[in-house]
Amino acid sequence: MLEIKTYKTRDLVLEVNRSYDPTRLDLSAWDRFLDVLCGDRQYQKEAIETAIVYLAAGRYNSIEDLIEENWYKNTELQNRYKDINEYFNHLQLPKKLSATIDLATGTGKSYVIYGIAQIMLGIGLVDNVLVLCPSLTIEKGLMEKFISLSGDSKLRLTIPEGARYKNPRIIDANSTIKEGDICVENIHAVYERTGSSIRDSLSGNGIRTLVLCDEVHHAYNPVTGRDKESQSIKKWKSFLLSDEYKFKYIVGFTGTAYIGDEYFNDVIYRYSLRQAVDDRIVKMVDYVSRDESITQDEKFQKIYDNHIENQNKYRRVKPITILITKDITNAKRLTENLIEFLSKKEEVSREEVEKKVLIVTSSPDHKANV
After folding, report:
1. Distance (Å) of CA 214 to CA 92, 105, 109, 115, 138
2. 266: buried, middle or exposed (CB in 10 Å: 19+, 13-18, 0-12)?
3. What is the pLDDT of residues 265-297, one digit of tens each?
4. Which of 252, 278, 304 is the last residue of a domain?
5. Within this chain, do residues 49 and 189 fall inside the same structural domain, yes or no?
6. Of these four, 147, 163, 221, 240, which has the most CB atoms within 10 Å of its CB?
7. Which pTM value belongs to this model?
8. Domain containing 359: what range?
9. In a domain, 288, yes or no
């Protein structure tokens, strides 16, 4: 019989040693920048500082160095793996300065991504930054946010005088990536034969490029779809590990740092949904994580009853019910099944039901719904 192990997620977060040589990394010079960028969102500042110390302080040459430092003082890690070599074998991006930052959805990952990118360019550790994401929709949102931040005159005034790159150009891969640029691109464009400058600009130069991956859980979890988008996501991890680019600095961001039920083993900072709710950063969400109903119609009936109850209880607002799936294929299937159920339940046409069932995924097919 297999042994079932349980852990407290917070105990699996790797601690980055904050003791470093200030003559090598003067992070205090960026205090005003972080204060203006993050405002009173202290967790964003902590996440950025943790990442910069890990990447730039010179204490670590790879994720393995950080794990080894934590292994001997964290018994939870020792309980999770039989030895440190087994831990190493389960790494997604071994032998690189790679890590994940776990920030709950709605807590402002884009500010953290931009902050890390600007500081790494400013201190001159890298010459450019590649920000990867799983969809055109997310790419558009990041581009808009970064352009806004880079054009913020108040924020620009806080960048240290001696910074190497003070005003990064925000581009996508349709433009040649030059020194000082932040290139935002969806992973599908990486494999386009035409129109993408990533190969020409970064091939062989990865050691001077910082790669930041938004929604990185897509890269690490199995993908079941066979469409073009799904196949590109399958190659995401391979791109990061490619000898053609030789990327060294890689940080992923996600609010769901899990492979199946297993928490990521390279997380260096975590700001959980529970903490975000307690801090009033995001609103309380009532959700069902497990349902003992046997059939799908039974599950739909419970969801339907709960939705009607919320409509009656909160008449001044429009309560919504959100169903979450593991991938696009399952989202499409669930949408069809839900429409069929509601059509029968309410005795209305499919067309009527489709007006109130909205599928939102990273697929271009659903771009209009976002």
Report:
1. 16, 12, 8, 14, 9
2. buried
3. 999 999 999 999 999 998 776 666 566 667 888
4. 278
5. yes
6. 240
7. 0.84
8. 296-369
9. no
